[in-house]
Amino acid sequence: AAASAPPPRSPVFPTPTIPPTPPQAGLHVGGSARVVNVAGAALRSRKEPMLKAAATAAFKEGETVTILEGPIEADGFVWWRIQGPSGAGWSAQQSRDGTPWLQANTS
């Protein structure tokens, strides 16, 4: 008896390897940021993510801060809990007109 031909096989495609996700661009918990555009003033951080909350620290232009929590939207701002040389607290990401106060460190 003649051997029957094997059934046709469907082509096998290699399973795509998912590349590791690159670090998030922009601000994210666990990342760091630099204080920018405060024009000689300081970026205040507050006890809660709201304008009426008591100030807990003040960060100078160029200081590097670590992002601990966020983002939370309140009082017309996007808030991040940050920590730096002068302490920790909630700071707004940018002014109402869109000028950034916290800039993500890319390195």
Spell out the blueprint of helices and strands.
Layout (H helix, E strand, L loop, with lengths): L31 E4 L6 E5 L8 E6 L3 E11 L2 E8 L2 E6 L9 E3 L3
Antiparallel strand pairs: 1-4, 1-7, 2-3, 4-5, 5-6
Keywords:
single chain, 0% helix, 107 residues, mainly beta, two-stranded antiparallel sheet
Description of the molecule:
The chain has 107 residues and is an all-beta fold. It has no helices and seven strands. It has strands spanning 32-35, 42-46, 55-60, 64-74, 77-84, 87-92, 102-104. The strands form two sheets. Strands 6-5-4-1-7 form a five-stranded antiparallel β-sheet, with no helix packed on it. The protein has a two-stranded antiparallel ribbon with strand order 2-3. It is elongated and about 85 Å long. The model has no long low-confidence stretch (mean pLDDT 88).
